[in-house]
Amino acid sequence: MTKPRARDLEVHFEGSPGPLNAITDVNGIEVGYATIIEGQSARTGVTIIHPRGKRDHDPVFAGYFAFNGNGEMTGVAWVEEGGFLEGPIGITNTHSVGVVRDTIIDWQIKQGAIFQRWSCPVVGETADGWLNDMNGFYIKAEHVRAALESAQGGAIAEGNVGGGAGMITYEFKGGTGTSSRKLPNKLGGWMIGALVQANFGRRFQLTVSGVPVGQHLTSDAPITNGENPFKQDDGSLIVILATDAPLLPHQLKRLAKRATLGMARTGSLGGNGSGDLFLAFSTANRGAAGPGSAKSGVVSIEALPNDHMDPLLFASAYATEEAIINAMIAAETMTGRDGVTIKAIPHDELRAVMKQYGR
């Protein structure tokens, strides 16, 4: 049975989504998951994104932005320096970044897919330690390989799946979410897709389509009891933005920055303990990483001028916002380590609050 999404609950968002309302609306992208729900303490997993699909290893232009850096995203030093993302992206829990990174390298070696003679994979994380025993190291190489190989296009799962399996958002169950925006043809017709791993927020902050939902749905808030503790949250957010628009690395960094606004539109302002790390890439400009023409080594690329970027910047924020809410809507109540239970956001109560505000 297909899980409901925010729009199924008649929640209104800015902009028009693509046909799947997912990052996979950007042609060629494939997403894979491995989800580990075992015993009382394993509530975790790994998410893989292949920018051009698992059998196409042509690098893509990319840009990175850290809104708040209390977290990890490996490989971004080379993204910043070289401007390219040279393989799949992994997302997991904080203490499993190493095994995901190493397994991606091993997979690339066996695929003959390392662009240089070495690999610096991009792997991001958020901490699922409330529901999962991160020190149990449940994620093994075989889980990462399964996510790499099972990745596919089309509609993708949300909520308690992949790296988002054990995550919490605004003190409701959170996890993995996605959304997209299709620009009108007069604005280029470009597609923007977002995939998030949401693990942040305090209940009193939660805002859905401009409505202060968290000030109404105060029950079962395990950290704050629904009250305002007069401090920001300590959770984290990973956002991956993808587009088919021909953008250069510095322009993609500008897109990545707008994920901050999508996060803010759901209520959070970030906090000292929050790892909010964002990456954007473009599937345009195939072959831009070389080797170029045999004679000169020069490659030809296309790029939008900066003054045509506003619709893409706005769409990045809107897609991020909706992906976060979709992660919460799809998530299901979970009990994990030490008997901790995190409730899913109640759909009927959410709709009732939205109606109070005419939304």
Description of the molecule:
The structure is a single chain. By secondary structure, the protein is of the alpha+beta class. It has one domain (6-286, 303-356): L-amino peptidase D-ALA esterase/amidase, CATH 3.60.70.12. It has six helices and 14 strands. It has helices at residues 76-82, 97-111, 141-150, 249-265, 310-330, 347-356, and strands spanning 30-38, 42-50, 60-69, 84-85, 89-93, 122-126, 168-169, 172-173, 175-182, 191-199, 236-243, 275-282, 334-335, 341-342. The strands form four sheets. It has a six-stranded mixed β-sheet, sandwiched between helices. Strands 1-2-5-6 form a four-stranded mixed β-sheet. A two-stranded antiparallel ribbon has the order 7-8. A hairpin with an 8-residue loop joins strand 9 and strand 10. Helix 4 (249-265) packs across helix 5 (310-330). The two termini are 27 Å apart. The model has no long low-confidence stretch (mean pLDDT 96).
Give a short synopsis of this structure:
By secondary structure, the protein is of the alpha+beta class. It is built from 6 helices and 14 strands. Strands 4-3-12-11-10-9 form a 6-stranded mixed β-sheet, sandwiched between helices.
Q: Topology of this structure?
A:
Layout: E1 30-38, E2 42-50, E3 60-69, H1 76-82, E4 84-85, E5 89-93, H2 97-111, E6 122-126, H3 141-150, E7 168-169, E8 172-173, E9 175-182, E10 191-199, E11 236-243, H4 249-265, E12 275-282, H5 310-330, E13 334-335, E14 341-342, H6 347-356
Parallel strand pairs: 5-6, 11-12
Antiparallel strand pairs: 1-2, 2-5, 3-4, 3-12, 7-8, 9-10, 10-11, 13-14
Helix pairs in contact: 2-3, 4-5
